[in-house]
Design a protein that fits this description.
Blueprint lengths: L4 H15 L8 H8 L3 H13 L3 E4 L5 E4 L8 H9 L22 H18 L2 H6 L4 H8 L8
Length: 152
């Protein structure tokens, strides 16, 4: 599974907003600079986050962007879905839309299990968790597994 640059940038920008003082708006320039995100790319990402209700924006001298909900109510999955759509696709299709036959028939439940696993992690981690550096216990257990940091 690959996490797109778009999703990575969106989560990083959302965490930056979550770390800001409550009620404070951050400009797209400030977000781009703080996280090393190309400004034009970030503008498109912020539009998607606004459209999906993750981010709110305000125009004017004191304008900028802020989270639309408290950081504890915004999961990483919410942010990723806002910019990339559903979390897991197989060959550009949702797993439940696939049909396999013959010896490959048992592959479909594997793809569904992958989707369930990704959901379990990304839905469990909130922006507040990332700001605090305290991941949920189940996610921390996965990170602490011996091979978690190895590319196999």
């Amino acid at each position: 599974m690959r996490i797109s640059a778009r999703a990575d940038y969106a989560v990083r920008a959302a965490v930056e907003l979550a770390a800001a003082e409550p009620g404070r708006h951050l400009t797209s320039d400030a977000l781009a600079t703080a996280q090393g995100i190309p400004h034009r790319f970030l503008e498109v990402i912020l539009q998607d986050l606004r459209r999906d209700g993750v981010v709110a924006s305000q125009r004017g001298a004191r304008g900028g962007h802020r989270l639309a909900r408290p950081p504890a109510e915004v999961s990483v999955a919410d942010v990723v879905r806002a910019v990339d759509g559903p979390l897991v696709f197989v060959n550009s299709e949702r797993p439940q839309d696939l049909v396999y036959s013959g010896s490959a028939e048992a592959l479909l439940p594997v793809w569904v299990a992958v989707r369930a696993s990704v959901r379990r992690v990304l839905d469990a981690v909130t922006l507040a968790d990332l700001v605090s550096g305290e991941l949920p216990a189940g996610v921390r257990q996965l990170v602490d597994e011996p091979d978690a940091w190895r590319n196999l």
